[in-house]
Amino acid sequence: MNNLPVHQAIAVGASKHPHKGKxxxxxxxxxxxxxxxxxxxxxYRLGLLVVLRSRxxxxxxxxxxxxxxxxxxxxxxxxxxxxxxxxxxxWEGYATQIANTSDEDLGQxxxxxxxxxxxxxxLPANIFLARDTRPSSFGLAQxxxxxxxxxxxxxxxxxxxxxxxxxxxxxxxNTQGGYGNPTEHGYYSKLASAFTKVREQQSETDESEYTGExxxxxxxxxxxxxxxxxxxxxxNQLKISVYNDxxxxxxxxxxxxxxxxxxxxxxxxxxxxxxxxxxVSLDGDADRIVYYxxxxxxxFHLLDGDxxxxxIAGYIQELLTAANLxxxxxLVQTAYANGSSTQYATDVLKVPVACACTGxxxxxxxxxxxxxxxxxxxxxxxxxxxxALATEKINSASQDERLSSDxxxxxxxxxxxxxxxxxxxxxxxxxxxxxxxxxxAKGWTMTDWNAAYTDLPNRQLKVKVKDRRVIQTTNAERCAxxxxxxxxxxxxxxxxxxxxxxxxxxxxxxxxxxIYAEADTQVAADSLAYEVATKVYHLADGVGDPPxxxxxx
Length: 553
Ligand code: NG1
Ligand code: ZN
Hints:
The structure is a single chain. This protein is of the alpha/beta class. It is built from 18 helices and 19 strands. The strands form 5 sheets. The protein has a 5-stranded mixed beta sheet, with helices on both faces. A 5-stranded mixed beta sheet has the order 7-6-8-9-10, with helices on both faces. Strands 12-11-13-14 form a 4-stranded mixed beta sheet, with helices on both faces. Helix 2 (about 40-55) packs antiparallel against helix 3, helix 10 runs parallel beside helix 11 and helix 10 (about 305-320) packs across helix 15. The longest helix has 18 residues, at about 40-55. 2-acetamido-2-deoxy-1-O-phosphono-alpha-D-galactopyranose binds near residues 68, 358, 507 and 510. Its cofactor is Mg(2+).
């Protein structure tokens, strides 16, 4: 460890991680994300920042090095708050500031943050870090460690972990084990034990067509490794075959949850022809999951985050009713949620639905307004949050002798289900185990589950523009306020289609504008998306080729 004064220690580190000053970095809702080869100085600076954060909150802080579903040449970092949440918004600003600070100004920048935030540098600081399987992640972890050490922070390097596993570790540590043991083994045994206990509460009927057999597309990433480790703790309760396990293909290349969701087709590298075969895809850091199957006519069916969210919300509601527990439950979605899912939740499940801005931190925040808040992005990122009141009521109902045994059993199932859920953040492995428990309880096949409602055909497109910030939105991103005339034009186009909806927003993770469209037929959804994309291209200074006309007939 160094014994240099702060300024000097920072300068020594900075000389090993020089900032070329050519690129502008921004810490957004998904952390910092860009090409891996320019990130070294940024990770060093983040190392400094998380030591300050740890001292400011007097707790362990986490950092995951990953760029999730982005291609292998990209990378990034996300900071994890003490309870496993995403970095506080004001600190996103400090992260952006320090990431863009030159070598010469770095000491001064750190010193100003220390004074401004009144940080006691004599306090201990503790950082948990982990990384995904990208080749660049190892070196970036070293840059982060150099930053941590420059400010005399302590750290535990967990090596390879999924993003949600690291979130879990941080929460376990800061609850002194109350949330579980902060080890990989602790994670698997908590989930495996909860999974077994939930299933013990559920009686399987003779007519059940449920099967615990599934094919997993690991996106050639960390999820493939970790799901295999999870399986070893499940005592053959599920029969999982892992494909795209990283031994052949490249990370996220024509596979993974994002590919399957956006392309609406099966991934490469995994056999999916067997009719009704249950398939899932994880993304590159295993915080997203989507299900799908091919039916006997060879038609592909996607069961995305919306289908998972409504399945979970419906089941929890049944248990709450059966346990006679009065808790206020809500579902949080984004504008990308399929209109049919929103209608199903509202009209059939009678669960109130809230719409939040894109990015899980917004959904997470909104879900905290409910006693039981289920939140999912359509792309498969989501979880369930239980308030302290909900946790307390569920626990006491599970032991309340005055209740009927059926009521107690429903409460007990809920209690174990809560243990199975990773409440810190969306977790593909945990979500998969939750879905499997629910399908098991209902005795459902993929076809049964899929029959809950039919998705409206939809299409997502990207348009490259000179500066995507010219598009500003309101009403949870469903309405564009600039550039002038765009929203009126979208409204005009949408009115020509049946059952249609479309919105545009600048991506937070890519340098593009995203177009979403849904309508009564796929041809209509494709054409609507194309028309809206063309409008964006003209009104927002599109660059490159104009959007291509849809080829569907
Ligand atoms: P952007 O690029 O801001 O649309 C994407 C996803 C988000 C979220 C983030 C972080 C869509 C439409 N957008 O954000 O939902 O997952 O990446 O990974 O899927
Ligand atoms: Zn991810």
